Amino acid sequence: MKHVSHMTIRKRIVAVFLLAILMLVIVLIRLMYVQFIKGPSLTEQAEMSWTRDIKYEAERGKILDKNDQILVDNISAPTVMFVPRQIENKAETAFALAEILEVDQELILGYLEQDTSIVRFSEGRKLSDQQALAIQELDMAGIYLAEDSKRYYPHDTLLAHVLGFSGIDNQGLVGLELFHNEQLSGTAGRLSFFSDAKGRRLPDLSDTYQEPIDGNDLKLTIDLEVQTIVERELDIVEATYQPDGAWAIAVDPNSGAILAMSSRPTFDPATYQKVDPEIYNRNYPIWSTYEPGSTFKIITLAAALEEEVVDLEKDHYYDKGYIEVGGAKLRCWKHGGHGDQTYLEVAQHSCNPGFVSLGQRLGTDRLFDYIEAFGFGKKTNIDLAGEASGILFNREQVGPVELGTTSFGQGVSVTPIQQVMAVSAAVNGGVLYQPYIVDSWIDPITEQVIEQNKPEAKKQVISEETSSLVRSSLESVVAQGTGRGAFVEGYRVGGKTGTAQKVGSDGRYLANNHIVSFIGFAPSDDPEIVVYLAVDNPKNTVQFGGVVAAPVVGNIIEDSLQAMDVEKRSDGLEKEYRWPEQPLVEVPDLIGLSEQDLLGYLTQLSIESVGTGSKIIEQAPAPGTKVPMGETIRLLFGE
Predict the structure, then answer these.
(1) What CA–CA distance (Å, rounded) separates 289 from 408?
(2) Are 140 and 201 in contact (CB under 8 A)?
(3) Which terminus of the chain has a smaller tally of CB atoms within 10 A, N or C?
(4) Phi, psi at 367, each rounded to 5°
């Protein structure tokens, strides 16, 4: 028998002891790792296996106008879901739910028989208050109602193309709802309850609730009153002319803030599924590109004045009805021409040959330098999706004919937003601004501003002196030229008509199919609003911008300035009336007169009187107001 020394035994005991300590340390380290490092995640996984979550959608942020009027809101629209394993009588439950949801019983029964923890289904989304109350009164095990909401558009079709809409999952699909979806969406919350392996609820454990975080509110530069006026006028245009389309945009020329924007045909965002996607995907003021026609002459005029190649009062142009350029005849709209005229009259008459001569004086490079400086040929980068960039001639391909046609707005392709921003620059003192429609983001709880947009001046395109000349020239167009339909008594309005030919699929211009337009601004000496309106192929009328579009813009400007509290004045140019137009009659001061004294006023005005007494003590309209001939004046007689 082998003898083992005490020393060897001791070494073996020590080795075993050290090994035991090492194993104990390893176990302790593992326990600490599981407890402190892996513990939270393991606990979370365990709770996930025990818990069932009912999702609570966050409310999307509201959308407001510049004066905090609500444009888009939310209304309650609960969602029903169920835990199949907690439902004992599935047939009875399916029958009750199918009756409330107005769907087939077998469909609900199919959902109830699914082998899953929680069933969410499309037919149970966005319920009415009555449906939610009926489900709540069932008081059936396994049936849960979750708070949810859906978008509410209190003004129906107003601003539809700009606002867009969101889908059943409250995700933005079109317009501002899509473009700013992330900030509008918020973060969903949840109600969690504990259940056993068979899905049965554990009554001894408390439910946990994580509150949803609502999306931020979006405040726009849109003025609801101005927008309503624009919508009203477009509705009238659509009913009167049955056009292929119509659109309008109003902007603050001193900041680039969009005050109104609308398109026809339009739609109701709440029922967008009922219309063709082409309707809601086309926000014409930023999407549509076409030859602008004579509204583009404002750019040629501004460039010519800035470069001092013309004096509007002293320089003359003789219009014989056409001008020959590069072997082609570029014609005036007036057969036989306008004869001898100053260049101010060239602008008033919208004379194509006269503007061709201005383009020739400028030359290709100078004219195109200004066209590009005013923002044409590239996107404005307005904070909306779907903007087009337009098309300009390549300078290397511009010959005498292309230079001539570009001078009066033919052969180039632009967007309405480009036009309104360029004209704003031409009349606001020469500054081209970045257009924007988002004013600020607001915390829905504290109502504090999170992020504020400010006007961004891109460049000084022309001088203030040139801009002043452009304003006065365009005021004369409205008072004495082709834009007389936009004249507004008491407000100084400037503007320019446009009648643009449309190109067909064969590359030829269409006959009797034009986009007629007008761009106007007021007050002309210190503009506060610029309005552009275009009507695509108006029916049963003469297709001229001065006939169709100018009066509409005049209505928009007059009512908008009143809504903006801009006072009327009497220091503007007098309108030049032409047959069959009738000049307005100034209402005299009749206060204090007797009935006998009125005989001299009956030839031009109708009179309606009330009250007893010998003298007039009140009248409407007020003295000095200009009204159409034959207008009724209401008088109150008393002592």
Answers:
(1) 17
(2) no
(3) N
(4) -60, -45
Q: Rounded to an integer, what distance in angstroms lies between the CA atom of residue 436 and that of residue 404? A: 33
Is residue 211 predicted with pLDDT exceeding 90?
no
Which residue is listed with tokens 């005005």?
605
Closest CA to 148 of 181, 126, 119, 171: 126
pLDDT band at 190; cut points 50, 70, 90:
low
Let me know: does 629 contact 585? Beta carbons within 8 Å: yes
In whole angstroms, how far apart are CA 179 and each of 174, 510, 523?
A: 7, 36, 34
Type of residue at 543: Q
Catalytic residue (one of 262, 263, 288, 294): 294
pTM of the model: 0.80
Question: 3-state SS of 394-406?
Answer: CHHHCCHHHHHHH
* 294 is known as an active-site residue: yes
Quote the distance between the C-alpha of residue 340 and its chain's center: 44
Q: Give the list of residues 6+ apart from residue 437 with CB closer than 8 angstroms, or none.
A: 162, 176, 220, 221, 222, 257, 258, 261, 382, 383, 384
Task: Report in angstroms the alpha-carbon separations of 403 from 18, 129, 364, 514, 569.
Answer: 98, 65, 6, 22, 41
Residue type, 501: Q
Rg, the chain, Cα only: 36
Core vs surface per residue 170-188: b (16+ CB within 10 A) or e: bebebbbbbbbbebbbbee
Omega before 580 within 30 of 0, i.e. cis: yes
How long a stretch of residues is the chain? 639
Task: State the DSSP code for 245.
Answer: E
